Amino acid sequence: MSILAVDHLGLTLGGNVVLDDVRYAFRPGRVTTLLGANGAGKSSLLACLAALRVPTRGVATLDGGDVQTLDRRARARAIGLLPQAADVHWDIDVATLVGLGRLPHTGRWSMTAADRAAVDQALAATDMTVLAGRSVERLSGGERGRALLARVLAGQPDWLLADEPLANLDPAHQLDVLARLRDVAAGGSGVILVLHDLHLASRVADDAVLLKDGRVVAAGPASTVLTAPLIAEAYGVEVEIGVTPAGHRFILPIGR
Amino acid sequence: MTRLNLGLLVALLLAACLSVAAGKVWVPLDAWSAADPRSIIIVELRLPRMILGMLVGAALGLSGAVMQGYLRNPLADPGLFGVSAGAAFGAVLALYFGYAAQIWLLPAFALAGAAGTMGLLAVIAGRSGSLILFTLAGMILTSIAGSLTSLAISLAPTPFVSSQIVTWLLGALTDRSWDDVKVALPLILLGGAILATTGRSLDALTLGEQAARSMGVDPRRLQLAVIAGIALTVGASVASAGVIGFVGLIVPHMVRPLAGNRPSAILLPSALGGALLLTLADSLVRLAPTVSELRLGIAMSMLGGPFFLYLLLRMRRKLA
């Protein structure tokens, strides 16, 4: 069982303390959301986990080893990142795009049967199989988001990290992507999401890490973290938390 | 894809035959044997010139493809990095001080110019690996090297030197010998081998810097490989043929519709296509009915300028 953790993690950027003494062990097979107001350090924490940023203090570890010193390709096979930017700089077709997700596995550009199977599986998991031959520039926003998710899935990482995967998606596609991410967690991988929408977070999260000014306000099972007093402390807003007649939890901001 | 490369190779072979035959003196196939006195034209003039043209074309085509992939900009060309300008300035210095009498000194100065520009680039933009910084630094270095070159021309000790510099800057493969091939061949092969290793990383960069890094790409190592590979290929090209622009811009665009848009898929076709384009162009300038030979550099610019404009117009909707 793979364990991704941060210990005494601190990050200072240009004299500003972005993260301060963050400690948490992420659990595989669960969806963990990183929450907090703008500038709380969510994306920075994700970047440290993905080894895109070098922490000023402390360490992010994968199975006990510092992610910074892991072999780059081994790390890329274990930790997949879906960045917020939906860049695809060359107009390639969807299958080629998803095939890029196999780069940490293949030596050169010679796809093995296992590579192709992983690509097919990722295409199927995101309902993109029928669009496999379509050029990326002719996809709708939602389809493009799914294709990019499929790219990460094709790498079959133990950990899937995503920075605001629901931004710019309409409600139907948001629910769609959330369902796929839940499937990934159900398959045994760990899913770590940066979200700014509390409501969607409460729908998808098993666990939550609530940040304020780079420090952890609360962390653990979502039901214990997403409470009115803790949210008020982290975001500075009053919220009403309730359950709809159909049994869905909701979090509604009502005032400062 | 392999069929495309094979096709390009066959075309290149045919172009090579044309290049050996074409010129002020047309040397037909049946005169290619050692017995014919015209064979000395082939062995001492046409062959080295043809090989040099192929090497320079392949170097420029490959470096253009790598640069476009690295900068994720379809308008990128070796000129953009400042390497061509830096190499040209080095060579101009050699001409200015009259060192060019020694066969090894002009290439040495051109390579030093290319390496110097690349070194400066690495110092200015190397630590961050940022593309915007890298591009801007390259543009500024291009303009500095250009103004220093102009300074050298304006301060030339004799009119002969200044005309020598200007003629050389125009770019050509005229009167090249085996000595030039001996200098260019190892440098371009080494640079090409380094550039060939970047394909996988360039593919990953299609998804942006962050995604590429998360896929295991080391941005600093990639930048180092791009810098070293471009300095060697473009430096050696400029040293042996002067400044020949637009090959690196045109060729990748011509092979993309056939090879696909994935950056690694166009590396080999771009090298072959560049060799083909320059071999053909160099044969045609020799056949052109001009009094003195049409300069290859000028011919390529006259072809490349409008092509650049065409690309720009086609991309206008997207850029605006």
From TrEMBL, chain A:
Keywords for this entry?
Answer: ATP-binding, Nucleotide-binding, Translocase, Transport
Start and end of every ABC transporter domain? 4-238
Q: Which molecular function GO terms apply here?
A: ATP binding
Asked if the record carries the keyword ATP-binding, the reply is yes
Q: Which Gene3D superfamilies match?
A: P-loop containing nucleotide triphosphate hydrolases
Write down the PROSITE patterns for this protein, in alphabetical order: ABC_TRANSPORTER_2
Q: What does this protein do?
A: Part of the ABC transporter complex HmuTUV involved in hemin import. Responsible for energy coupling to the transport system.
The protein's name is: ABC transporter ATP-binding protein
Please report the organism this UniProt entry assigns to the protein. Sphingomonas hylomeconis
UniProtKB/TrEMBL annotation, chain B:
What are the protein's UniProt keywords? Cell membrane, Membrane, Transmembrane, Transmembrane helix, Transport
Entries under CDD domains matching the protein? TM_ABC_iron-siderophores_like
Q: Where in the cell is it found?
A: Cell membrane
Looking up Gene3D superfamilies in the UniProt record yields:
ABC transporter involved in vitamin B12 uptake, BtuC
Span-the-membrane segments of this chain are: 47-67, 79-97, 103-124, 131-148, 222-252, 264-288, 294-313
**Superkingdom:** Bacteria
What topology in the membrane does the UniProt record assign?
Answer: Multi-pass membrane protein
Q: Which InterPro entries match?
A: ABC_BtuC-like, ABC_transptr_permease_BtuC
Similarity remark: Belongs to the binding-protein-dependent transport system permease family. FecCD subfamily.
Kindly provide the name given to this protein in its UniProt entry. FecCD family ABC transporter permease
Tell me which species this is from.
Sphingomonas hylomeconis
